[in-house]
Amino acid sequence: MKNIRFLLLGIFFGFVLTKSEAISWFRIQEMFRFQSIHMFGLLGTAIPTAMLALYLIKKFQIHTVEGENISVPKKKFFKYRYILGGTIFGFGWALAGACPGPIYALIGNGNLVFIVVLLSAMLGVLFHTLVKDKLPQ
Amino acid sequence: MKELLTHPWPWYISGPLIGLTAPALLVLGNKQFGISSTLKDFCAMCVPSLSKPLNANLKENAWNLFFVAGIFIGSVINYFWFQNPEPVKISENTISDLHKMGLTNLNGLVPSEIFNWNNLLHFQGILFIVIGGFLVGFGTRYGGGCTSGHGILGLATLNFGSLLAVIGFFIGGLTMVHLIFPLIYNNLR
């Protein structure tokens, strides 16, 4: 099974995410109140690390484990939906204290009521599908 | 060893490890870090007739479903064997703010006074659990990504659209915490 490698990386990521406490509602509250460096330190080290690794991938023309070329994400330019969608996401992030990755991680950590958060998020996705043609893009 | 895996990890250790996940996905199979798209895949699983309008392709995104299944398993491993018994060490100022919101029990990863099944019958629970989740789902699809896709991969590739989305995350979060929470203060108890 080719996808097992993604399962294994996911296990690593889920464990790291839990240990980082980025999945904690308390940490998200602290972040939006600017009362600790913790979340900013997390993002502020995660992003440059990813940036450096992507630079090395490009520089040494590293291929995937199967020898394919690696493509970087497409450039995205100004669109209202990024800022509007981002803001709506921000409302939800402050309330539920979790973005999608942490929702899965919180359920795994025994916070079973986050199943309702997950189902509500899926409802939000379905609702977006129904109304997306009417939204400013 | 067990001690090391039980304690929470400082941000300067866990941050870089989180950051390495994005390039690891590229090297493992040219896959782009982005967890919120799995929400639409799960929707398409529940309502197959909506796959097309949802823009979901279960075959193409199978890797991502394995990835989030991994997130779940990694968390279960933490839950059973490496759980941190201590409360999250948030700052004194946050603790005092949360007390003012009426929260007394700050143990665990989330406040059990808000996130419990009985609370789903109350305004507070519906707001934080149901409406919160709904806005996360709606916002990620409308904005085209979440903290992983925009916040980490997008910013690491200097993507302007992702920067706008992250600015949006903070506009939304700050508005909610500093303007809307005080308005609904009395209902938060």
Describe it for me?
The complex is a heterodimer of chains A (137) and B (189). Chain A has six helices and no strands. With 137 residues, chain A is mostly helical. The relative contact order of chain B is 0.10. Chain B has helices at residues 2-6, 11-29, 37-46, 51-54, 62-81, 92-100, 123-143, 147-156, 160-183. By secondary structure, chain B is mainly alpha-helical. The longest helix of chain B has 24 residues, at 160-183. Chains A and B meet through helix 1, helix 2, helix 3, helix 4 and helix 5 of A and helix 2, helix 3, helix 5, helix 6 and helix 7 of B.
Distance between the termini of chain B: 41 Å
Specify the helix fraction band of chain B. Answer: 55-70%
Tell me the β content of chain A: under 5%
Uncertain residue ranges of chain A: none
Mean pLDDT of chain A: 95
Structural class of chain B: mainly alpha
Distance between the first and last residues' Cα of chain A: 39 Å
Which segments of chain B are poorly predicted (pLDDT under 50) over 5 or more consecutive residues? Answer: none
Number of domains of chain B: 2
Structural class of chain A: mainly alpha
The averaged pLDDT of chain B comes out at: 94
The number of distinct helices of chain B, counting runs of at least 4 residues, comes to 9
For the secondary structure, the number of strands of chain A is 0
Most extensive chain-chain interface: A-B, 114 and 122 residues
SSE topology:
The complex is a heterodimer of chains A (about 140) and B (about 190).
Chain A: H1 4-20, H2 25-32, H3 38-59, H4 80-96, H5 100-108, H6 114-131
Chain B: H1 2-6, H2 11-29, H3 37-46, H4 51-54, H5 62-81, H6 92-100, H7 123-143, H8 147-156, H9 160-183
Helix pairs in contact in B: 8-9
Keyphrases for this structure?
heterodimer, A: 137 residues, mainly alpha, 6 helices, B: 189 residues, 2 domains, 9 helices, 65% helix, globular
Quick rundown:
With 137 residues, chain A is mainly α. Chain A has helices at 4-20, 25-32, 38-59, 80-96, 100-108, 114-131.
